[in-house]
């Protein structure tokens, strides 16, 4: 079942129309499928694929954040050493 289908079902259950920004997101935001080699509209993604894909992306973002924090910590250590050396002179 795709996200488009899920949103349509939700609108029937809730007896409400689908928000325009939701429709725009489903149509105009894309995910690059490495296995297919193409961009897929988020709305056309099956729910399980969507969840897996964005769990992976979230993990990759955390890895980049961890690496960035490591670099910042190393730079802080270097600055402390420089300050210490300057104070000794």
Could you list some keywords that capture this structure?
3 helices, 89 residues, mainly alpha, two-stranded antiparallel sheet, elongated
Query: Measured on Cα atoms, how large is the radius of gyration?
Result: 23 Å
Could you say how many structural domains there are in total?
Answer: 1
> Residue share in helices?
over 70%
Give the CA-CA distance, first to last residue: 70 Å
Q: Could you report the average pLDDT, rounded to the nearest whole number?
A: 84
Structural class: mainly alpha
Contiguous runs where pLDDT drops below 50 for at least 5 residues = none
- Count the beta strands: 2
Instruction: List the total number of helices.
Output: 3
Please describe the biggest sheet, giving its number of strands, its sense, and whether it closes into a barrel.
2 strands, antiparallel
Please outline what is shown here.
The protein is mainly α. 71% of the residues lie in helices and 9% in strands.
What does this protein structure show overall?
The model has no long low-confidence stretch (mean pLDDT 84). This protein has one domain (3-88). The protein has 3 helices and 2 strands. The protein starts with a helix and ends with a helix. The chain has 89 residues and is mainly alpha-helical. It has helices at residues 3-14, 20-28, 47-88, and strands at 30-33, 38-41. Strands 1-2 form a two-stranded antiparallel ribbon.
């Amino acid at each position: 079942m795709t996200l488009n289908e899920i949103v349509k079902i939700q609108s029937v259950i809730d007896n409400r129309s689908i928000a325009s920004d939701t429709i725009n997101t489903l149509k105009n935001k894309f995910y690059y499928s490495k296995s297919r080699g193409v961009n897929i509209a988020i709305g056309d993604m099956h729910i399980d694929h969507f969840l897996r894909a964005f769990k992976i992306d979230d993990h990759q973002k955390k890895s980049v954040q961890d690496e960035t924090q490591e670099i910042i910590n190393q730079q802080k250590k270097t600055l402390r050493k420089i300050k210490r050396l300057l104070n000794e002179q």
